[in-house]
Amino acid sequence: MKQTIYTLLLTIIVQTVTAQTPPATWQEHWFEHNQLLNRKFYDNDLAVYYDNDVSAAVTWPYTFVGDVWRYTKNVYGSFGNDQHLFAIFHTNKYSGGHPSTYFDASHDNRNVIDVGPGPWTSGTGGDLDIVTHEVAHIVEGASKGIHGSPAFPIWGDSKWAEIFIYDVYLALGKTSEATRWYNQMQSSTATFPVAGTHWFRDWFYPIYNNYGGTQVLNRFFTMLAQHFPKNGNSYARDMNWGEFIHFWSGAAGVSLKPLATSAFGWTTTFESQFNQARIDFPFAYGTGVVSVYKDCNYGGYVTALGVGDYTLSQLLNLGVLNDDLSSVKVRSGYQVQLFWDDNFGGTSLTLTADNNCLVANGFNDRASSVRITATGAATARTATTLPVDKQLIIYPNPVMNELRFGTMQPLSGATIRILDVMGREVLCTRSTTNNIDVSKLNSGVYTLVMTNNSKTITKRFVKN
Question: Residue span of the signal peptide, if any (predicted)?
Fold first, then answer.
């Protein structure tokens, strides 16, 4: 009996290993591709194939592409039952590249990057960029066990890949490639949604730099898989712009409406879509001490607020509409004051505990400004620093010439001071725009101190 069991187990193991062993040759049968490919290298994670014109001296993909794929799986999870990435290289044919995922029968249900025209002899710069770019498409098209990319019509072929490439280079310790790519992306523009849009500089890099790096990228796909409509194991439809901003806000843990306004502009269509997205997908941004809800019984959209004062303009930037709140949750040790009017005027209501429906208080759909304070032992250490600090993001960081601001606070007239590492003031000015010229500063670490309406925000940055 034991011998039978051992034989059965051995048979299963042999069959599994055989199924996971990449074939020695592979005949292309997609698009215009018709090459007979030869396997040049494989391990537990990677299978590399060349056509007959790729030089056998090209060996850098064996290590680099494998490292990229291992890192990708470590961050975003597995991609099907076969752990391999199948990396195909061509020389003197098939310009550019394309991906395929384990969902796609077109490429025999394998995770594939297929690139040309080579010759792949440098193993640096553009050679690395294109293969990493194609891996980015596998992530967006098949992560978390769901097929499709609802955001692709918005960010297009390269914009998500740009921040993915930067993150991969940093993670693999390729600092010179990361610096090269970062500098290249500073001048990279797109025509969508408007001409001259700096996707990397003004959108993805600020999110990456301020809200968790690698993890904020992964959280976006996690939130998609958890909340966005699906048909079976495929996404049911594409996202609209409002949904796109909402889901990235969820990943970042803070409303990115101000950043989106700065990066893309903010149209009435965006506003309508954003508000609807918060109703359709009612997850909160971050974990504040007070949560405010659109509907009674904690329904509709929800916004998590930290300790601080919130005027109507600030609430709108966070996605809270005027005269639109119907229920509130309050963490122990805090209180929330709701005001009928903007700027903390008019009739007010103070709550120190949850209220599932403000109708009984005569405050349903009445709030235009909100004040949240700590009570008792919940001391002032949480009262101003965290919520206020999160209302400002600075980018690029490191910076060469122009430091830009993304904020939900009005900046006009704000005092901006920059201090060196010794605490000495090296620049002081009044804000009139959402940027400041730091080109004349010496290289080093600085602290930006912004004071506006008696509130002070500090951020550190590096000047190259």
Answer: 1-19
Q: Which of 92, 115, 145 is the last residue of a domain?
A: 145
Give a yes or no: residue 368 inside a domain.
yes
CA atoms within 13 A on the CB side of 267: 9
Domain that holds residue 457: 392-463
- Tokens 């293969």 belong to which residue? 131
133-147, 277-291, 316-330, 425-439: which has the minimum mean pLDDT?
A: 425-439
Report the distance separating Cα 239 and Cα 227, nearest Å. Answer: 12
When divided into structural domains, the chain yields a total of 4
310/318 Cα distance (integer angstroms): 10
Is 151 part of any domain? no
- Do 203 and 301 fall into the same domain? no
Q: How far is CA 425 from CA 151, 417, 446, 448, in A?
A: 44, 7, 10, 10
| Same domain membership, residue 350 and residue 258 | no
Partners of 458 in beta bridges: 449
* Domain termination residue (choose one: 236, 262, 280): 280
What is the tens place of the pLDDT at every residue in 343-399? 999 999 999 999 999 999 999 999 999 999 998 655 444 333 334 445 577 777 778
Burial class (CB in 10 A: 0-12, 13-18, 19+), 339: buried
Q: pTM score > 0.85 for this model?
A: no
Two structure tokens written together for 188: 């990279």
If asked whether residues 275 and 167 sit together in one domain, one would say yes
Residues 120, 77 share a domain:
yes
User: Residue 274's Cα: distance from chain center in Å?
Assistant: 17
Identify the band that residue 162 occupies on the pLDDT scale cut at 50, 70 and 90. very high
Is residue 181 one of the residues assigned to a domain? yes
Q: Is residue 12 part of a domain?
A: no
Beta strands at 85-89 and 46-50: parallel, antiparallel or unpaired: parallel
**Rounded CA separation 444/449 (Å):** 16
Q: Is the peptide bond before 22 cis (omega within 30 degrees of 0)?
A: no
DSSP state of 442: P
Task: For residue 454, give both structure tokens.
Answer: 């008696």
- Pull the structure tokens for residue 276: 């609807």
Report in angstroms the alpha-carbon separations of 267 from 166, 199, 236, 273, 435. 30, 17, 26, 10, 22
- Whether 112 and 166 map to the same domain: the answer is no
